[in-house]
Amino acid sequence: MTARTTDIEKAAGVLSAGGLVALPTETVYGLGANAEDSAAVSRIFQAKGRPPSHPLIVHIGSAEQLDDWVQDVPRPARLLAEHFWPGPLTLVLRRGPRVPLEATGGLETVAVRVPDHPVALALLAAFGGGVTAPSANRFGQVSPTTADHVRAELGDAVDFVLDGGSCEVGVESTIVDVTSEIPSILRPGGVTREDLEAVLGFPLAVPSTSRVRVPGQHPSHYAPRARVALVEPEKVVTEAELAQELGHQVGVFLPPALADAPVKAHAVVAVPGSVAAYARGLYGFLRELDRLGCDLIIASLPVEEGLGLAIANRLRRAAGPRPTV
Ligand code: TXA
Ligand code: MG
């Protein structure tokens, strides 16, 4: 934690005055505004270039404040909030009157979480209200896990950047829709399905993937400049070398099992063997390969269990078809 008390006070003042503050969380940096200030919330969408129909997450200071923001909290939601907050879990519930429709993209539900980061919690305590914050990146691009990433990407569009060091988890929160009887995961993230089910004592519903309900479910998201191609782990080296020979500037995500394999490519990232370290590093690796001038990234998917599910979800989206400009 590098932010000082004076920074926290200044950031709280910016929020109260209707400004935008980039804040660290344990997952990724957020671009925050006073959740109850419609004009400030609208500025978030402008700064990100995000369509106004895409709902935001309201960050609150503690699980005890949940009922100030939502209505009808079912038992499973209460259980998850008590168990995982502060932490990388977002709950979708019925919107309370304090939440403006600008923050929910017009929906009657609202996403809420308590972030597990000392700087974010200090800011929420000093400010006193809720802070709506999407990830602090331009719409569709790689989420920021350091204050430098935010400055490089959003620059003057943000009034104040609170520096809280690098994010510990590195991928966004898990979003769980708790409005229906059997909760379902809308986006895998920092809390694993296995952990959620252990606390609930029953399996979560599998949501239909055909309904695009959240921007994280659009085909292209979390995308670096370079194109991303996913191949089987044993083909990573041959595909990378082939593409490099064909004239691409290839960046390779080398799977842990091939850590020592020689590979002729423009740049190589050795994927960490620990899935937590992989999640923590993922967005930084993508940014680094862009910075090094790669135009193609060859990667494979990790085993889709635990945090591997969130990593695979982000890599698939990064590899998804890009909008034609
Ligand atoms: O870890 C995180 O969740 C980070 C940090 C900053 O807290 N935030 C984040 O925000 O990832 P964003 O805006 O990049 O992603 C929020 C996701 C979006 O996919 C959005 O559609 C979904 O939450 N969401 C928000 N409100 C919703 C609602 N009422 N129903 C369904 N999905 C919702
Ligand atoms: Mg985002």
Automatic annotation (TrEMBL):
<dbReference type="Pfam" id="PF01300">
    <property type="entry name" value="Sua5_yciO_yrdC"/>
</dbReference>
<protein>
    <recommendedName>
        <fullName>Threonylcarbamoyl-AMP synthase</fullName>
        <ecNumber>2.7.7.87</ecNumber>
    </recommendedName>
</protein>
<dbReference type="Pfam" id="PF03481">
    <property type="entry name" value="Sua5_C"/>
</dbReference>
<keyword id="KW-0547">Nucleotide-binding</keyword>
<keyword id="KW-0819">tRNA processing</keyword>
<comment type="function">
    <text>Required for the formation of a threonylcarbamoyl group on adenosine at position 37 (t(6)A37) in tRNAs that read codons beginning with adenine.</text>
</comment>
<keyword id="KW-0963">Cytoplasm</keyword>
<dbReference type="InterPro" id="IPR017945">
    <property type="entry name" value="DHBP_synth_RibB-like_a/b_dom"/>
</dbReference>
<keyword id="KW-0808">Transferase</keyword>
<dbReference type="InterPro" id="IPR006070">
    <property type="entry name" value="Sua5-like_dom"/>
</dbReference>
<dbReference type="InterPro" id="IPR038385">
    <property type="entry name" value="Sua5/YwlC_C"/>
</dbReference>
<keyword id="KW-0548">Nucleotidyltransferase</keyword>
<comment type="similarity">
    <text>Belongs to the SUA5 family.</text>
</comment>
<feature type="domain" description="YrdC-like">
    <location>
        <begin position="5"/>
        <end position="191"/>
    </location>
</feature>
<dbReference type="InterPro" id="IPR010923">
    <property type="entry name" value="T(6)A37_SUA5"/>
</dbReference>
<dbReference type="InterPro" id="IPR005145">
    <property type="entry name" value="Sua5_C"/>
</dbReference>
<dbReference type="InterPro" id="IPR050156">
    <property type="entry name" value="TC-AMP_synthase_SUA5"/>
</dbReference>
<keyword id="KW-0067">ATP-binding</keyword>
